[in-house]
Amino acid sequence: MTDFDAHILTKIRPNHLGFGGLDRDNLTREIHHDPQAFLQQHIRQSVISPHWQLRGLFKGEAGQDTAPQAGFLAAQTVIDLVVPHRHLIYLGKRITDGKPEYFFTLDVSDMAEEALLSLIDMPCHFAELREVGPMVDGRDGSVLAYARAMLYWHGKHIYCGRCGQATSAEKLGHQRKCVSTNCGEMHFPRTDPAVIMLIEDGDRVLLGRQAIWPEGMYSTLAGFVEPGETIEHATAREVFEEVGIQIGNIRYQHSQPWPFPSSLMLGLYATALTTGLNINKDEIDHAQWFTREELLNFADQGKFLPRQLSISRRLIDDWLYQRHH
To answer: Which of 9, 33, 41, 238 is buried most, with the most CB atoms less than 10 Å from its CB?
Structure first.
């Protein structure tokens, strides 16, 4: 494994939170199992990203106008926080000037927030990545997204789903094993695939909205892939269920990790084979065809698109400015 450059892999700009950022170092995870022992072995070359109630640590005081910077702390300075009852996970490493830097994340939710911050020798605060994500550096943001997803998974698998006994972390936090000798079930992190699609019909595209969204906001259709289903079938099924049209020529464009809590958004384009809408009000509030000219003047209609961070906006902008393939 290595720290892949996402630009080289795809020849297009990666979506936010999907910049790679680390060599996940799977070979090391196969050899070592105890993250605390591995951290002690590499204490001088390690940094820790603490999370409190799934909120990542950022430098500086909350509410500053400057872009938030990830609070990666030198492991030596916060080693007292690392105790057996807290989730410590090895995320991977970066190689800089030939020297490795090892990244860990740590769940410190059992401590009071103010008491925790007082132990850190610099101004800092905890914040929800979903709220500050658009302003965070792409590579560091991808590491925080990775850390958040792993900590969420650990928190949901403290007990074995097969027998109900406790589980323990293995392979530096990338597996959990049931402690019962009668069971021994292995549990692995899971990612929920979701399709998000922009449907084309000549010089117009189909957008919809949920009733809970802010008034005037429209976005692409989306839905989860079900067991035993292909990405293409999930795309066609979700579109038909929500707006009653049939589609073809489904093309994958790009993806985005979405660890809120554990999704991978698969961005696609498709061509409408039928265009008459039959909106399922149990699924969405409204859907409508919009021309390119209408989208370029969306604000004049009292409407707006999702924020730039999202893959839905990327799909719309790529189509709008003819950057899709």
So the answer is: 238
